[in-house]
Amino acid sequence: xxxxxxxxxxxxxxxxxxxxxxxxxxxxxxxxxxxxxxxxxxxxxxxxxxxxxxxxxxxxxxxxxxxxxxxxxxxxxxxxxxxxxxxxxxxxxxxxxxxxxxxxxxxxxxxxxxxx
Length: 116
Prior knowledge:
Elements: H1 6-17, H2 44-48, E1 52-56, E2 66-70, E3 75-78, H3 83-99, H4 108-111
Antiparallel strand pairs: 1-2, 2-3
């Protein structure tokens, strides 16, 4: 059996040596499921960079329920019960409510559900 590739070994080593606590939760472009969730408060700088938001359900291939924030060059997996994320969703809902009346984002109900 062949050992791990040099590229994956290098990536693992970089993640282990990194002082950035969010480094371990970044999704490479080829990955479709979150394996770790960020639980700390989110910075407003990070939230300003969000391009798209997805909900990852804990069914089928993915084992964790997560909110995936897509930024320009990376994606970050956030725990669904993260308070700063819930506050950000509420601010976005209020902001968009003035622009698009009767908008139902559908994510607020998912925020209260615990991981399965």
